[in-house]
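## retry 2 of 3
previous attempt timed out at serialization; input unchanged, resubmitting
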Amino acid sequence: MHSDGTGATTYDRAALTAILRVTLSQATEIYMLNPDTVAFMEHPDHILAARITRTVAQSLHRNLPIGYHITYPTGGLPKNLDAAEQTLRKRDVVGSYFAIDGNDAGHVFGEYIWDGNWVAHCYFSMAHANDAGAEFQLRPFELVNEYSGRCMVSDGAGHAPQLAACSGAAQQNWYWQQLPANPGEKNDTLFVNAVTHNCIDEHDSSLVEEACNPNTSTQRWTPWDFSFVYRLQNHCLGEQDGALVASRYAMFTAQYPMVAIDAYGLDGYASGRRALRRCQGQWPR
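## retry succeeded, writing output
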C-alpha cells in the first residue's frame, strides 16, 4: 500500500497476529465481533478476524474486559439506542464508512425495509481477554420466531419440531454445526438439538428430527443474517398457521424471521433469563 492510501496489501494469519499483538498490548479494553457464530449469521471474514483477535488476547495473559459485539442477528431484536442522539451518531459513522467502502447506504438510512433498523441496535456480551478456551466455542441458542414470540422445541427423533412458549427447557436449545466448505458456499450447516443431538431434516416443507448425516442434502441449512434460516430453493424456516415449516417466502413476510438468542441470551426478550448487555455509551463494568 502506498503512502497516500492507494494500492493494496495482503495479510496472512501470522502477519495479522503480529500486528494485533502489538496493538492489543496497549489496550485497556477490547471490543470486537462475535467469534462464536457461523457463516452467514455473520460474514466469514468478520468471524475469522474475531477468532484470531480472541487468540491473541488470550496470549497476552492480561485480565482485560472484552466485549463480543452481536451484529446482524440483532435485526429482529428490540431497538435499544435512543433515536435523538445515539442512533444518529451511529448513522454518521456508518455513512462515513460507506463513503469509503462505496456501497449503497440506502438500506441503513431507510426504516421501510427489514434490515434498516439494525442501526438502532447495540448488543454485546462481556468476557475477559484471559478467559481460557478455543478460538471457537460452541454456544447453544434458542431460536425464537419473531412473529409469534415462541421458541422452537424438540419433540424427539422421528417427530417434527414445534413452536412453544419460551420456557428455558433444555429441548429448546440448538446449535449450528458448520461443515467443511469452500469460501462463500451455502447450505453447509447442520441444525442440531443440544439435548438429542439429532438434526432437522426437511421433506417437502415438512420438518422432522433425525439422526445427523452430513451427506444428506435435506439436513443442510444456511443461517443468514437478519434472522433468516433457509435451505435450497429458498425454503425458509418460519411459522405458518401456528406450525413450524420450511416454505418459500417473500423477504418482507413477517412469519419467517427466526431470531437466534444464543448462550449470551437477552434480558427482557423471549425468556429473558440471561443477560446480553445493551450498549449505553459507556463500558459496562
